[in-house]
TrEMBL record:
Domain of life: Bacteria
Organism: Gemmobacter nanjingensis
Protein name: Short-chain dehydrogenase
Family: Belongs to the short-chain dehydrogenases/reductases (SDR) family.
Pfam families listed in its UniProt record: adh_short_C2 (PF13561)
């Protein structure tokens, strides 16, 4: 307990999945948390979860894939807490986005340019916009801070579909690498968590494969999907001072999937 005592954390994607789990574990470890999501109702659900455990939770419903939304999100955390020490970029869309936005999770040949731009904006541009603002504010505070980005093992492995998603997650990984080189001398660390199959709505349609024992063995040596809390634990480590010698790191949390598949 208390691994983030005195820290202020801004968590994007805090309305569900890994972002919600991270909000809970960060608050439990002493951070003052502001959550961001596009949906106010989802943030209220996260807030109710934290408050029933005795934690405060500030939030702001914004579309951070656009500059005005990102700026409003940063303004919210500064209004609530006066500073930012940790930025967790957990916002994004995955396979489930195909239901809401048909054609967004296809191969390159089948992906309309507007759908490509949409996925890249939500999954990668939001990371750029929020990281840019966080670094600027951390500098105003005198330097120091942690940037943590939730990418995917699909950022360094090919998939037959979801090419915009794969490209965005690869971009997130290399953007983090570049930021780690640029800002680590100022005490600002940048690191990535790369999940495999995690039991969230983003990959709901793929999780059915774990119902088949033979297919489950191919998907992960552990033969189960990960839990959002297991990814949040990795985010907690990279956000904490325990990771003081980590910058430009990619922490893979995938149940051994990439080790098995090479």
């Amino acid at each position: 307990m208390g691994r983030l005592d005195g820290k202020v954390a801004l968590i994007t994607g805090a309305g569900s999945g890994v972002g919600r789990a991270a909000a809970a574990i960060f608050a439990r470890e002493g951070a003052r948390v502001t959550g961001v999501s596009r949906t106010a109702a989802a943030l209220e659900e996260t807030g109710a979860l934290l408050r029933q455990n005795g934690h405060d939770f500030g939030h702001s419903a914004q579309d951070i894939s656009l500059a005005p939304g990102a700026e409003a999100a940063m303004a919210a955390v500064l209004a609530q807490h006066g500073r930012i020490d940790i930025l967790l970029n957990a916002a994004g869309v995955g396979y489930s986005w195909q239901r809401q936005s048909p054609g967004s999770m296809e191969d390159v040949a089948a992906t309309d340019p507007a759908k490509w731009d949409e996925v890249m904006r939500i999954n990668l541009t939001s990371c750029y916009l929020m990281s840019r603002l966080a670094v600027q504010q951390m500098r105003r505070q005198g330097g120091g801070g942690a940037l943590v980005h939730v990418a995917s093992v699909s950022g360094f492995r090919g998939l037959p579909r979801a090419h915009a998603y794969c490209a965005a997650k690869a971009g997130m990984i290399n953007l983090s690498n570049a930021m780690s080189c640029a800002y680590v001398a100022e005490g600002i660390r940048s690191n990535v968590v790369a999940p495999g199959y995690i039991a969230t709505g983003m990959v709901e349609s793929l999780l059915e494969g774990f119902d088949d024992p033979a297919q489950a063995r191919q998907m992960s040596p552990m033969q189960r999907p990960g839990r959002p809390e297991e990814i949040a634990a990795g985010c907690l480590f990279l956000a904490s001072d325990e990771a003081s010698y980590c910058s430009g790191s990619v922490l893979v949390i995938d149940g051994g999937m990439t080790a098995m598949q090479g």
